[in-house]
């Protein structure tokens, strides 16, 4: 499948020349970590062979790197035939995700579960759940006494769910989204399983953390989800989430500095646009101010006691509730091949990906062994 038309400058935030960014490109030799500072791209392989090692070093000083010139002149593109390819901005980090961190998303997960993955029952289940709640759960603090009281009431009404447990209980849902090196970057196709009939994008802010769980930056991500699979059983989560080309990140990771901090993440507004070849258009928005758990709390719950020596990235969850009907009343949204998903934020840029099926997306073939052999061949591995 061909990549969509890609203009790098339109993918970058408006103030990208004032920010500090890390990412990866391939100039024909293999994955190369870069830092972009004041609009200039620096090859950081003289400092570290991977983004993971660069973060572990704790310094993003470009003085030891090699200047490649203005990023727009370097001209990285997601196209496999481009002289300089733009890759997903991470490499050896584990890819983790927090689920059900927004009240609206929690309700949609409960609907999937109660409907057993059958989209034709979604509208009826949604009505019963809203009646049982008798109001919004958005103001409920997870793990609080109020949350425990609500839990008892829902159990009595026969509407309790494992999704509500992680939405308002003391423990967040944290799962592994994708294997190391499997993520795709901005402009690359994203995949849905060919046997899925009810699915959606999940536009999210994604934190980059070091081995100690300290956040060093943020980017945008699409946690592609199969509602029919997860709705049939939560034990099918891996089939719903972890598939070829099912996780995109980018365009670059914005590093925290004096001009961009965790408070900017907490205040972030995320815009979503889906455009179909059939003329269908869906616009949505998420406000991180509505998240149920603070990003720092989610990071702490993800760390799992010194579990990630190469660091990790964490999807913070989505407010996006895909209830706008596409073809059938009451069905809500589902993807079609050829859709273009665009996720944007004024400080993080724009992540855009065309949709195909997993079997038609470019296969993931560059694994850990390939990366090690490539780095060794380039003389980038040292004792």
TrEMBL record:
<feature type="domain" description="Fumarylacetoacetase-like C-terminal">
    <location>
        <begin position="209"/>
        <end position="355"/>
    </location>
</feature>
<dbReference type="GO" id="GO:0016787">
    <property type="term" value="F:hydrolase activity"/>
</dbReference>
<keyword id="KW-0479">Metal-binding</keyword>
<protein>
    <submittedName>
        <fullName>Fumarylacetoacetate hydrolase family protein</fullName>
    </submittedName>
</protein>
<comment type="similarity">
    <text>Belongs to the FAH family.</text>
</comment>
<dbReference type="InterPro" id="IPR011234">
    <property type="entry name" value="Fumarylacetoacetase-like_C"/>
</dbReference>
<dbReference type="InterPro" id="IPR051121">
    <property type="entry name" value="FAH"/>
</dbReference>
<dbReference type="Pfam" id="PF01557">
    <property type="entry name" value="FAA_hydrolase"/>
</dbReference>
<dbReference type="InterPro" id="IPR036663">
    <property type="entry name" value="Fumarylacetoacetase_C_sf"/>
</dbReference>
<keyword id="KW-0378">Hydrolase</keyword>
